[in-house]
Amino acid sequence: MLDNRSKYFVFVPFCLLAQAYQAQGIVKYEWKSSIKSFVNLLFDNDINIVQMPCAESTYNDNLIRESMGITKYNTKDFNNH
Fold first, then answer.
1. Fewer Cβ in 10 A, N or C end of the chain?
2. What would the pLDDT profile of 33-42 be if each residue is shown by its tens digit?
3. What predicted TM-score, i.e. pTM, was given to this entire model?
């Protein structure tokens, strides 16, 4: 039997897949799911999703956090994390 599984993958942080997990202030409350069209695009093209941890949440050990922007996370400690 032939193995017809897709060999294409995309690595996506958990916080992108779960809008409820995103930082305060960046959630689009008029959207029930911020990534539905992104996920549908992957599914329509037979691309696998590899879910990665949310780097910001694991760095701060904090689910509810303020949006800090890339400049506040662009530190040696965060990059080592």
1. N
2. 667 788 889 9
3. 0.59
